[in-house]
From TrEMBL, chain A:
It is found in: Cell membrane. The keyword Transcription does not apply. One of its GO terms (biological process) is transmembrane transport. Residues 78-269 form the ABC transmembrane type-1 domain. Its main location: membrane. The chain crosses the membrane at residues 21-40, 76-102, 114-134, 146-165, 194-213, 250-269. GO terms for cellular component: plasma membrane. It comes from Caloramator quimbayensis. This is Raffinose/stachyose/melibiose transport system permease protein. Coiled coil: none annotated. InterPro entries: MetI-like, MetI-like_sf.
UniProtKB/TrEMBL annotation, chain B:
The keyword Membrane applies. Keywords: Cell membrane, Membrane, Transmembrane, Transmembrane helix, Transport. This is Carbohydrate ABC transporter membrane protein 1, CUT1 family. The chain crosses the membrane at residues 12-36, 73-94, 106-126, 157-178, 203-226, 260-281. Residues 69-281 form the ABC transmembrane type-1 domain. It is found in: Cell membrane. PANTHER family: ABC TRANSPORTER PERMEASE PROTEIN, INNER MEMBRANE ABC TRANSPORTER PERMEASE PROTEIN YCJO. The lineage of its organism: Bacteria, Bacillati, Bacillota, Clostridia, Eubacteriales.
Amino acid sequence: MKNVLMHKVDFKTKAGKVLMWIVLIFFLFYTLMPMVWLVISSLKTNTELMGSPFSLPSKLRFENYANAFKVSGLGILFLNSIIVSLGATFLNIMIASMASFVLSRFEFRFREAIFSLLVIGILVPINSLMVPYVKIINKLGIYDTRFALILVYSAISIPISTFIIRGFMKTIPVELEEAGTIDGCNFYQRFFKIIFPLSRTGIVTAATLQFLYCWNEFIYSMLLTSSQSVRTIQVGIRYFSNQFTTDYTSMYAAIVISIIPSLIGYITFQEQIISGLTSGAVKG
Amino acid sequence: MRKISISDKIGMILFLAPAVILFTVFFVYPVGFILVTSFTEWDGMSSPVFVGLRNYTTIFKDPIFRLAIRNNIGWVIAGGFIQVPLAVIVALMLSKKPFGWKALRTIYYFPNVISTVSLSMMWMAVYNSEYGILNGLLKILGLGHLQRNWLGDLHTAFYSVVLYGVFYIGYFMIILLADISSIPKSYYEAASIDGATKIQQDFYITLPMIKGTIGTCMTVAMVYGLRQFEQTYVMTNGGPANKTMVMVLYLFKKIGDFKYGIADASAVVLLLIGSLVILTVKRIFRTENN
């Protein structure tokens, strides 16, 4: 890809390069600086923060982190978020991959119609459906339970998960499945023993995106639960400013703690997330 | 077409049923539900009373709802016409694979894995009038007279809530970058033999080739702008003086007042504007093959 006319446009290329790096570094700073500042501030005393917001802490105050756990009840918030996110990811992925199996490996009438309808769901502004969701959850008698959130999150992501997993299952050669049929595998064995394991890349991608969605979801968590014992971390964070009142640095510590699992998950499953975004949007 | 056996047919129905049932309960039914109840008055307990178009005339006469629509349009413009073009520029730059492009791609995406609530809390600290980093930065730069209470000031509150996220371009950048890297290399080789500069190649090869994906990104950004809630709710809760109100927050507050009919009418308006945006962008960015 080397430009053969490079020497003629040397000055222009250089100026372009400088401009490019200014832009790239601007975005780098913009992304990192508030986070770095938050981490630094979370290790200061409140007096230090008020006195000089930019200075480094005179001594690292890890007690802010201990304090964050004590005041906010982060332990239970974390536990609830983990239960809800894992539960909703498992349920959603099972349902979506079962549907994807049928929608990708068999030809029948209405197949494309069913799939198109499901995929339209990706673009529905889900926040506009608050009233019916509250009503449905109340009718089912599961208001203020973790299961309500598991069910709602599983349902909301069916369109996107089915889209990703089906796209993946379609690429598995028919021969593999036919070999299974000849060996006497029935419908369920073909799914669990052949197609599901072979689609794991697509499934891990969908699962990672679903887990991040569940971990970060706020509005329905707030709307469908009320007691502190089932509250998830995102709703918990919202109340930090009331709980910590003037202890800002401990509050920052709590926010930092809430961010860490997402970042670890992202760094671990980076490849899957990127490939998921790509398959999710480019083909659409 | 392969013949499907009876036992396979039963399996297919069993496997498809959970997805179809949940989709019906949580997508089809709710959309139908808000369409119907938007023409009624009800408080969530007693049975709804049909009132015709009254909820719609009520919300369109309500200056707060009108302000919410205007603000949502601001969100849509910021997402579709600032955030996405910035993402296109950065994606074009990273597609040249400069030093450290992979690390940059990873870091630019960080904010997208952090919850909106956490980010909003972080930016509240940035905007804080007493010890926030923004006022501190202005002071250092000798622009102390610009210092203010960013989220409390009538003139700056809305921009402060909207703009911080606009520069988080990671999500769209990754999608665009993947699309750019799928363009066959031979196109560029042919162009450089013809003497096209890198910039010309960007304009005449890359941009036309990724047009469809830019359209997808704009649709997603704009739909996000319409359904925006967390940022506003956490940072200002619609204030000061409703200056930052958006449609979903309006809807949320009406639920709090038990005015479910009005809440559903505003949800229908949101759905209609959403469909309109999607269809318009689709039309503009329609490529030959679809």
